[in-house]
Amino acid sequence: AGLRFAALDRALLEAPLVGMDEVRDEIGGMWPALDRFSAQGVGVVALRDERVLCWCTAEYVGATSCGLGIATAPDAQRQGVATATGAHAVAACLARGLVPHWECGRDNPASARVAEKLGFALAETATFWYARLG
């Protein structure tokens, strides 16, 4: 079966697909609840059969912009899957009137290359501090 792309809605988030646990974990690390993401977030997955190969999700959504992050299964890398998934996610952001920003760590040059292929240009680098609360 071929590759297909789907918007991450609540029904898809609850689907028993291989790899969806990782998508839910990613969203859970950025959003207070899946319901909030379902109502306000933006996300696209690449699917083949009953398996998630790649996901691109908004790590936050503001009034006019959002920050996108992406992850791809190791056996689906270097095949254009991330670039295509990212393109669908960018289109979903623009359709909602949101300006997407691409976010990735310095230790993730593959994500930076995907961003460049999609037309993003490096605007700044930043240092983030995380607190483990609770």
Automatic annotation (TrEMBL):
GO terms for molecular function: acyltransferase activity, transferring groups other than amino-acyl groups. Pfam families: GNAT_acetyltran. Gene3D superfamilies: 3.40.630.30. Residues 3-134 form the N-acetyltransferase domain. This is N-acetyltransferase domain-containing protein. The lineage of its organism: Bacteria, Bacillati, Chloroflexota, Chloroflexia, Chloroflexales.
